[in-house]
Amino acid sequence: MSLGQWFMDYVYFPIGGSRADSKWKLVRNLFVVWLLTGIWHGANWTFIVLGLGYFVLLTFEKLLGIKGNVIYRIFTLLCVMFGWVIFRSADLTPAVAYIFAMFGLAGNALYDNNAIRYANDYKILLPITFICCTPIFIKIKEWLPPVRTVYAILALLLMVMSVSSLVMGGHNPFIYFNL
Predict the structure, then answer these.
(1) Which among 111, 119, 158, 173 is most buried, taking Cβ atoms within 10 Å?
(2) Is 33 exposed, middle or buried (0-12, 13-18, 19+ CB in 10 A)?
(3) How many whole angstroms separate alpha carbon 142 and alpha carbon 154?
(4) Inter-residue contact 92 to 49 (CB < 8 Å)
């Protein structure tokens, strides 16, 4: 059972879940679950902020019914990246500094020689993964049924390449051991 499933089964559903009889109760239910999720990860403000940040995002999604378009997907990916930075930081100050640095707002360049080297090393893999992660390939797959086999083979190949890259990348202990 995943942590998300546990919170749904033992917290979210028992307090009413999304079937609450008012929007206020739905917001309350989401707040409780995401605050507890943040607290579960540790007694640090970064985890509380992360949980409450996801609460705000999910509340807007539920109340406004927005999802599915390209801008929403890009926004979601940015929020997830910010969440990972906050999750991994020891404190909020370095997390905010790192987020600014991600966009070149900390006196650093947006890219350097390492970025150019990585882009050159993965010049074939990056476009393939981009195409496979966007609706473009899904549309192609619908139009050309034989592409489904190619898609499955490509997905398997990308998974094998990703796992081998992680394995060869050196020792990286479980993330919770570093906190």
Answers:
(1) 158
(2) buried
(3) 16
(4) yes
Structure tokens at 2: 């995943």
Tokens of 112: 């350097």
CA 82 to chain centre: 8
pLDDT per residue of the chain (179 residues) written in tens, 0 to 9:
888 899 999 999 999 988 888 889 999 999 999 999 999 988 789 999 999 999 999 898 888 887 777 788 888 889 999 999 999 999 999 999 999 998 888 888 888 898 899 889 888 888 877 777 777 767 776 777 666 677 788 778 878 887 887 777 666 565 555 55
pTM of the model: 0.64
Residue from 25, 28, 41, 88 carrying the catalytic annotation: 41
Tallying the residues shown for the chain, one arrives at: 179
CA atoms within 13 A on the CB side of 85: 18
One-letter amino acid of 131: I
Contact 126, 117 (CB under 8 A): no
Catalytic, 41? Answer yes
